[in-house]
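Amino Acid Chain and Its Fold in Token Form
===========================================
Scope: a single protein chain, as residues and as a discrete description of its fold.
Amino acid sequence: labelled as such and written in the usual single-letter residue code.
Position: the record begins directly beneath this header, with no further notes in between.
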Amino acid sequence: MPGQRRSDCAVIPKGFTKEQADKAEAMEAALLAESEGTGARPQAVSSAAADCQVYWPAPYEVCGAIRDKYNEIGGPNSFLLYPTSNELTNPDGHGKRSVFQNGPIYWSADSGAHPVVNHFFAAWQRKGWEAGPLGYPTSDEIVNPDNIGRRQYFQGGTVYWRLNEAYYVTGAVRDKWGETGWEGGWLGYPTSDEVQLPDGQGRMNRFEHGVIYWSPDTGAHPVTSSVLDQWSRAGFEASAYGYPTADPITHPAGIQEQQFQHDRIYSSGLTVPVASGVSLSLGVPSAGPLQPETVPDGVVLNGPGFNARFQRVADDGSFEVSLVRLDNSAPASLDLLFGAPAGYSLRATPQRVELVDSAGTVVAGIGLPLGFDSTGAAVPVQASFEGNRLRLQLGNSTAFPIEFPAIAARGGTLDQWWSTGIQQRSVCENEPYDCYRVRNARGPAYNLSKNAFPEATETDDNRIDAARHCIWNGLMTEGANRGFAERMAAAHERDGRANPDWTHNAELMDEYNNKTGVQVGLRNEGAPAAIESTCLQYGREARIVPEPETIDLSNPYGIDLIALRHP
């Protein structure tokens, strides 16, 4: 009666009008009258003949199994809040749904009634709701074992949610993901819906730490880590490798092996770090199996008549790649495969292959190798680069083994290695035997000086840099000879002038310290450890000379080091 309705004496929840509240009260009265006409008790509104219920002040009926699910989760006090529609028939003519303020409840005879809300609803919606590949929901949301993510089952797959993103996984890809441990396994959560591939046959899902690819001919297999970087750079399943035909195999020291339709990829496990989550990786494609083994600070991949050695040479991530022909059964050409995440490009120059960021900055690379036989004689090598594959035509000699070494390093240190600096490379090409013997002298120079002066910054004008130049030149003098060390040091300084941070005073400081290193090497012939310890002591006692031109730069005695500033 006017003036005596519930809306006249009760607070109407926000979002509803008095007209809606009064309509809802009238609908409740009609359902009650109908139920009383059947002999049911007045309070048993939910058992009305129409099997429906109204939730004041929302003027909508919620019926049957949907109503039961709604009441089960708390009705208007649940996360769904109040209904915003009557029960609706879905386009298939069989299922039903009711819409609530925070999402719908869907029902079908085969799946039951379940709410689908928020990101789960968005993931389901973009695949066509119940008419899409997922079909109807078969469960409510379920909290995952990590107590962070959630999942919801559908007739055609499962939607997983974490950190405000929800994606579905289904079929053979879902089964393979389950074998890896679901979201708690090494692949982590899905980061994409299932994607149909351009060939119209295959399917794939991306995950936090890899992908799973499926085709009817190859089945479902994960690809991850540096093998994924290398395979993706080649063109994924459309590349010369095709689809994966086996799961990845991880060998000791991080070597990864994976078989594809047309080749295998072996990834060394060593990478040049560029930024957080970004690195340059190198692998070896092979038609047949290779035998991996570990060596100090690295790994070796052994094949018929050859091996590929990857060995760390400095703590900054730099490592040597050396292709070795052991005898005449070795193939005339060997390939290296490059890998890096999206957003970076690869390009070749006459001296090296470079990894370049979106701003055009060289962030990492590997020098093209030089060749040396067991006598130290130079052996020719020709390089060609296409896509992400470096093909090396290796020259021959009767003096086995024949080594073809190169250095992979970050962009800031690329020109500090003999194999990548243009001027240094020229010295090596003219004096291959001496160059080969001392090619890795920079590694201990870098590591020892950095560890000895942890308070020093990574600049080119303090005592860490002074000690590094001393050790490097001392080891080159001891390993080769004075003349070679002096020519290589001079070439290094010429290469350094291309660095935007180069200064004249820093070059003068280096030249002084290089001369000290040569003298230390001469005084400690056959004792590399003494060279290292002497240079470190000189570094601790280094004179601070901000203007090197004010001192005798001929450095006739080679018994000290200078620096432009303190650490």
Remarks:
- The radius of gyration is 35 Å.
